[in-house]
Write the structure tokens for this entry.
Amino acid sequence: MNTFTFIFLIALFVSTAVHYWLAQRQMAHVAQHRSAVPDAFKSKVPLAAHQKAADYTLAKSKLGNIDGVVSAVVLLLLTLGGIINSMFEFWATAVSSPLWAGVLASANVFLLLTLVELPSSYYQTFVIEEQFGFNKSSVSQFAKDHLMQTALGAAVGLPLMALILWVMDSVGGFWWLWAWLILMGFSLLMSWLYPTVIAPLFNKFTPMEEGALKNRIQGLLQRCGFSSQGIFIMDGSKRSGHGNAYFTGLGNNKRIVFFDNLVNSLDDEELEAVLAHELGHFKRKHVIKMLCATSVMSLISLAILGWLINQPWFFTGLGVAHPSNAAALLLFALVSSSFTFFMQPITAYFQRKFEFEADDFAANNAQASKMISGLVKLYEENASTLTPDPLYSAFHYSHPPAAVRIAHLETKLQNA
């Protein structure tokens, strides 16, 4: 143990404690307001639905608290407990290539983390989601999904990791710049491939049938100057009762996707308004802005790693006796969130700002009243709490709280 060990322990303790404290605030606030629907929603949301949302939020928060503690304990076992060190020592003797020894050791750690998270994921799906009527998945579907995700992660992630480690070994002190270029290129490639190659591995995408809804959506696309490779209905209901809509892809590979249960829940004008909101993110260049922000943060992170990799105290402080590029990359990926925890509210602030801008776009290009009614239906059907704790939502929410968002849209409606 060295000074960095204590710095890491303090960062981990503080981030975990703040997470827990904020969750306790959220639970207390939601429970306190469970007995009555907020004034802004009294004529729109039944008390039973409001209480279901409160109970659903409380159940998820309790599981989240357990997950947070388990994650902290597992991270300590991996680092100071010596598991990572033992894995790297084992593969260093089992495989002649240092590069592939590092890849396999890292893969073992990620596989272990996947297995640790599996019970929580199972409980979330087959206890909490089942209890509140959202789970539509079977145990076999759950197992198939996780096996496919693991296989896909290995098929894509292991060669990428090997390439990054080769760059770290081969190109000198500015390896982090080349690694950043590779990661950004890979990210863009995956974004382009996702709609047509990756997503269909998990869901069925059916082109929207000709009719009034498709005509309305195509009219919206023409007004907004948006072109896509099609409008698709996704069979989201085979796993969950939650509904959503999104557009995905880059360049000439963009797709508009509606969950089938969303299409069944909203009327045509509400679906148009929800899609207008999603298009607002595109027209206001939010995707590009977030991509640029992510790129800058990735570059800074890799530059920091480029410095840390030459500091012996970084390795010994986290329980690794023999420094290596693979160990540095893995350790940095695992512990960095404890140090960047307090940047989360800044990211959330800009995400909420983008949501307001997208709502404004939707109000200008569709009916604000339909955006409001569609959102209320989504809040009710997805059991989203209408009464989050303000501090918790400021820290964690990527979308404005329901009451704030509806009030903003009603102001646009009044000024129309």
